[in-house]
Write a structure and sequence with these properties.
A hairpin with a 5-residue loop joins strand 3 (90-104) and strand 4. Helices cover 49% and strands 16% of the residues. The radius of gyration is 34 Å and the shape is globular. With 828 residues, it is α+β, with helices and mostly antiparallel strands. Strands 1, 2, 3, 4, 5, 6, 7, 8, 9 and 10 form a 10-stranded mixed β-sheet that branches. A 6-stranded mixed beta barrel has the order 13-14-19-16-18-17. Strands 12-20-11-21 form a 4-stranded antiparallel β-sheet.
C-alpha cells in the first residue's frame, strides 16, 4: 500500500513539473541553510569537548571586580591555593600556559614552535593519551632549589632538568617518529634543552577562547616545576582546568573557591583593595561565551527562513488541493474514507520534502565550505564543522517536520469537501473559492517572519556601517606588522639586547621605500593585553582607588610610525629609552580620569608593574586612544613605557611604515633580519589592514548571513504573495468581468488587486513589527552604535517590504486588468 502510494504520488508530481520543481527548490533553500547553520551550532555549542568526561571539567579564572577586570589567569601561588582549597569538590586541578619560541632545525635554520608549560597532572585530568614513552610524574614537577647567592661557589644545589612531551605531529616532523629520541635532550638555544619522555597521541588540542591567548596546538609540552611564591603574585599566566568529583556540584566548588579568594583578600591588602575573586565555570561554557549570542541569533534566523519556506510550499499545496476539490468530492461520494483522501496528499508532501532534503544537503555541504572561509577567528572548533551523523539526523527530522507543516493542513482541509457545494459548482475556479482565508493567513505569517529577518539584517548593516566609522587610534594603511623571535632577544644582557634592537630598527629603516620602523610589546586589536594598576595621590591613602589600565612597551618613534595623534606634550625620544627614566605617555582616556579638566603633562601617576608596590612615574605626553581588543569596544585606558623601562626584552611586535603597498615589502624585511642574525625569525607577517579587517570579521559574518537569509525570505514571501493574488484573480474572474462590463476601468481592477495584496502585507507587517521589537533584544549584544529599536532601520525596512509587496501584487493585478469582459464571463 505504501509503495503504491509513493508510485502514484510520484506520477502525479511528474505531471506537474513547474509546481514540483518550485516546491522542491523552496524546501531545499530552507533545509540547506538550516543544516549549514546547525552544523556550526552542533560543533560549537552541542558537541562535548574531546576530553575525558568533559561535562565535569571546569575552568578557573580571576576577577578584580573593583577595577572591572575579568577573566584573567592565575599566578603560581593563587593556583596552589585554589588547588588546596577546592580539593573536597575537585578531584584534581591542572594548569597550563603557552607561548612561542624559535629552535634550530637539523640544518641549523630557525623554526618557530609553540610550547606549553603544564602541571604534571595535566594529561591525566584532560585525558590526553601518551602514544610513546610515559606521562609526567609528580617528581618531574618538583620545584627548583633556590638560586645560590652570588658569593656561594661550592655546595650550591644543582638545577633540576626539565622534562618534555612532544606532540605527535612535531615528533614526526622533527625526529621522523624515531622512538630512540625518548630520553634524549632537545636542542634549545641559550639553555639546556628539556629531556623528551613521551609523545602525545595525534590530534590533542587546547580549547580556550581567543581572548585567553592560549595556543591551541602546542608542539612541546614541558612539565611545570611549580613553586609557591607568596610574595610575587603579580604574574598571572596559569589557566587552571579542574575536574568535579562525582556527586559534587559546581555551586559547591564555587563556594569553596570563594573561601579561597576571601582568605587571599584577608592576607594580601592588594587583593582586598582590588576586589580579588576566583570563578569556576564549565569548560565548554567558557569556550563559547563570546560567540554563543551570535550563533543563537543565526540559528533563530535560519529557523524563520525554514518556516517561511514551509509556508510557501503549504500555500502551493493549498492552491493545488483547492483545484482538486471536485476530484475529492467525487471520491468521497463514491465511499472513499477520509484517510484514503488524505494519504495521496501526504505522500506528495513527503516526496516533496524528501527531494528538498536531498538537494538541501548538497546546498548545506557547499555552504559549510563557505562558512569555514568566512567565519571569524573567534569561532571555536571551526575545523570540526561538518555534516556528521548528528547533523544528518537533524536534517532528516527537519525534512519530516517540513512535510508535516506544509502537508497536513492542506491534506486535512481537502479531505473535508462539502459535497453538494462542490458538485454544484460548475466553474473551474469553484474549488479555489474555499480556503482563501487559510491561504491569506499563511501569507501574513510569511510576511511577519520575513519582516523580522529584514529588520535583523538592517540592524546588522547599520551596525557594520558604524563599525567602519570607528577610529582605531592609528592609521593601518601601508603598515606591515610582524613578530620577531629568537633567543638573542632574551638571553643576552639588557645592554646587548638594546644594541641588537637598535640595529634591527636601523636596518629596517634603510630598506628603500620604508618611511619608519618601530616595535612594541604587542599591537592594537590583537587582544594580547593584560592590565596593571594605576592611581593618583588619592590611592596612597585608599588602595581601592587604584584602577586597571592596559600597558604597552614601545620604542621611541612608535606613535609617529603608527600615526597615533599626539594630543598634548611630546612623544618618547632616545633619551627616555634608558634605564632609570620613569617617564610614561598615557592616552586621552587615562588623562581625563586622572586629571579631569586640566593638563596631565608634568603630573605624576602611580604604576605597579615592576615592583611589589606602586611607584611614581612622570607623564610627558597624551596620545589618542587605541582600540586594543576590538573595534566594537573602546577598551580600557592605556599607559606606554619605553623598552628600557623593563629591561629591553619586551618589544617583539614590529612594524614598518611604507610609501606604497606594505605587503610587497615582506621578502625585503625577512632578508634584512637574516643579515643581522640568521637565527632571528620574522613570523606572523601581515599588513595592519588585515588585522583591522579581521577585527570586523564577527560583525561581517553575522551581517552576511542575516542578509542572505533576509533576501531569500523576502523573495519567498513575494512569491507566496504573488501566488495568493494569482489565485484570487482566478477566483474573481467572473466578478472582474461583471465590474468591467459595468464600466470599471482597467486601472480600477489593477488597484483593487494591488490593495488586496498590500492589506495582507500590512497585517503581516503589523505582526512582524511587534515580533521584531520583542526579538530585537536577542541581537542587541551584536550591535555597535545602533539600538535594537532603531527608527531609521524599521522605517527603511517597512518601505522596502511594502515595495516588494507592491511589485508582487502588481504582476497578478496586471494579468487581472488585462482580462476581456466577455471572455471572463464566458469562462465562468
Amino acid at each position: 500500500m505504501a509503495l503504491k502510494s509513493l508510485v502514484i504520488g510520484s506520477r502525479t508530481l511528474w505531471k506537474h513539473p513547474a509546481f514540483t520543481v518550485t516546491a522542491v527548490l523552496t524546501i531545499a533553500l530552507g533545509i540547506g541553510a538550516s543544516t549549514a547553520i546547525f552544523s556550526v551550532t552542533n560543533a560549537v555549542l552541542l558537541q562535548p569537548l574531546p576530553y575525558k568526561d568533559p561535562a565535569r571539567l571546569v575552568i578557573a579564572g580571576m576577577e578584580l571586580r573593583k577595577r572591572n577586570v575579568h577573566g584573567l589567569p592565575l599566578s603560581n601561588a593563587d593556583f596552589i591555593d585554589l588547588r588546596v582549597g577546592t580539593k573536597a569538590f575537585l578531584s584534581d586541578l591542572a594548569g597550563v600556559f603557552t607561548g612561542r619560541m624559535v629552535v634550530p632545525r637539523e640544518d641549523g635554520t630557525p623554526e618557530q614552535i609553540r610550547w606549553a608549560t603544564v602541571t604534571t597532572n595535566f594529561f591525566s585530568v584532560t585525558g590526553g593519551k601518551i602514544l610513546y614513552g610515559r606521562d609526567f610524574t609528580p617528581q618531574d614537577g618538583v620545584p627548583q632549589p633556590p638560586a645560590p647567592a652570588a658569593n656561594v661557589q661550592d655546595g650550591a644545589p644543582s638545577r633540576l632538568p626539565t622534562y618534555a612531551i612532544l606532540s605527535y605531529e612535531y615528533f614526526r616532523r622533527r625526529y621522523g617518529g624515531n622512538p630512540a629520541m625518548l630520553g634524549h635532550s632537545m636542542t634549545v638555544p641559550g639553555e639546556p634543552g628539556p629531556i623528551i619522555v613521551g609523545v602525545l597521541a595525534p590530534g590533542f588540542r587546547l580549547y580556550f577562547p581567543p581572548q585567553a591567548d592560549v595556543e591551541s596546538a602546542p608542539e612541546i609540552w614541558e612539565a611545570n616545576r611549580l613553586d609557591y611564591d607568596a610574595v610575587n603574585r603579580k604574574e598571572f599566566r596559569i589557566w587552571p582546568i579542574g575536574r568535579l568529583k562525582k556527586g559534587a556540584t559546581l555551586v559547591a566548588a564555587q563556594s569553596a573557591a570563594d573561601g579561597v579568594a576571601a582568605q587571599s583578600r584577608k592576607n594580601y591588602s592588594i587583593y582586598q583593595s582590588a576586589g580579588f575573586y576566583l570563578t569556576l565555570e564549565p569548560m565548554r561554557k567558557h569556550l563559547v561565551a563570546a560567540v554563543r549570542p551570535a550563533i543563537l541569533a543565526l540559528t533563530g534566523s535560519v529557523i524563520f527562513l525554514l518556516l517561511i519556506a514551509c509556508a510557501n510550499v503549504a500555500n502551493l499545496l493549498l492552491v493545488r488541493a483547492s483545484t482538486r476539490e471536485r476530484e475529492f468530492a467525487l471520491r468521497a461520494a463514491m465511499g472513499a474514507s477520509r484517510w484514503r483522501l488524505i494519504v495521496p496528499l501526504l505522500t506528495e508532501a513527503l516526496l516533496l520534502a524528501g527531494g528538498g532534503t536531498i538537494m538541501g544537503l548538497a546546498l548545506a555541504w557547499a555552504g559549510i565550505q563557505e562558512l569555514r572561509a568566512l567565519a571569524p577567528a573567534n569561532l571555536p572548533r571551526l575545523d570540526e564543522v561538518r555534516i556528521d551523523a548528528f547533523v544528518l539526523g537533524y536534517t532528516a527530522l527537519a525534512g519530516l517536520a517540513c512535510a508535516a507543516i506544509f502537508g497536513i493542513i492542506p491534506a486535512w482541509r481537502a479531505s473535508r469537501p462539502v459535497l453538494m457545494d462542490v458538485l454544484r459548482g460548475a466553474s473551474r475556479s469553484a474549488g479555489l473559492d474555499s480556503g482563501a482565508l487559510l491561504r491569506n493567513a499563511v501569507v501574513m505569517a510569511q510576511v511577519a517572519l520575513s519582516f523580522v529577518l529584514l529588520i535583523g539584517s538592517g540592524l546588522m548593516f547599520r551596525s557594520f556601517l558604524e563599525l567602519q566609522r570607528v577610529d582605531p587610534g592609528f592609521d593601518p594603511h601601508n603598515l606591515l606588522t610582524f613578530r620577531l623571535l629568537g633567543a638573542q632577544l632574551s638571553h643576552h644582557t639588557p645592554e646587548e639586547r638594546a644594541v641588537l634592537i637598535r640595529q634591527i630598527e636601523q636596518r629596517l629603516r634603510a630598506i628603500p621605500g620604508v618611511e619608519s620602523a618601530t616595535a612594541s610589546s604587542t599591537f592594537p586589536l590583537t587582544g594580547e593585553f593584560s592590565p596593571i594598576r594605576w592611581g593618583t595621590d588619592a590611592a596612597l591613602g585608599d588602595p581601592s582607588r587604584f584602577q586597571a589600565t592596559e600597558f604597552q612597551i614601545v620604542l621611541p618613534g612608535y606613535f609617529e610610525a603608527m600615526r597615533t595623534a599626539l594630543l598634548e606634550g611630546r612623544t618618547f625620544n632616545d633619551d627616555d629609552n634608558v634605564p632609570g627614566r620613569n617617564r610614561v605617555i598615557i592616552d586621552e582616556v587615562l588623562a581625563k580620569k586622572a586629571y579631569p579638566k586640566q593638563s596631565a603633562i608634568g603630573k605624576r601617576i602611580l604604576i605597579r608593574i615592576r615592583t611589589p608596590e606602586a611607584e611614581w612615574v612622570e607623564v610627558i605626553g597624551v596620545v589618542a586612544h587605541q582600540r586594543t581588543t576590538s573595534l566594537a569596544e573602546a577598551g580600557r585606558e592605556q599607559v606606554y613605557f619605553t623598552d628600557a623601562f623593563l629591561g629591553s626584552d619586551r618589544v617583539r611586535s614590529w612594524a614598518i611604515r611604507t610609501g606604497s603597498d606594505a605587503a610587497s615589502y615582506a621578502n625585503q624585511v625577512r632578508a634584512a633580519i637574516k643579515e643581522i642574525d640568521p637565527q632571528l625569525l620574522a613570523t606572523e607577517m601581515e599588513p595592519m589592514e588585515s588585522v583591522v579587517y579581521r577585527a570586523q570579521a564577527g560583525n561581517r559574518f553575522s551581517l552576511l548571513l542575516t542578509s542572505v537569509f533576509a533576501v531569500i525570505a523576502a523573495t519567498l514571501t513575494g512569491i507566496g504573495l504573488y501566488g495568493v493574488l494569482s489565485t484570487s484573480v482566478r477566483q474573481r474572474t467572473s466578478e472582474i468581468g461583471v465590474r468591467m462590463a459595468m464600466g470599471a476601468e482597467r486601472g480600477d481592477i489593477s488597484r483593487l488587486i494591488v490593495l488586496q495584496g498590500l492589506r495582507l502585507s500590512a497585517f503581516g507587517l503589523g505582526i512582524g513589527l511587534i515580533a521584531a521589537l520583542v526579538l530585537g533584544r536577542v541581537i542587541s549584544a551584536m550591535l555597535v552604535g545602533v539600538e535594537p529599536t532603531d527608527p531609521a532601520t524599521f522605517a527603511t525596512m517597512t518601505a522596502v517590504f511594502l515595495a516588494i509587496s507592491a511589485f508582487a501584487s502588481w504582476l497578478p493585478a496586471r494579468r487581472g486588468a488585462a482580462l476581456e469582459p466577455t471572455r471572463a464571463l464566458r469562462e465562468q
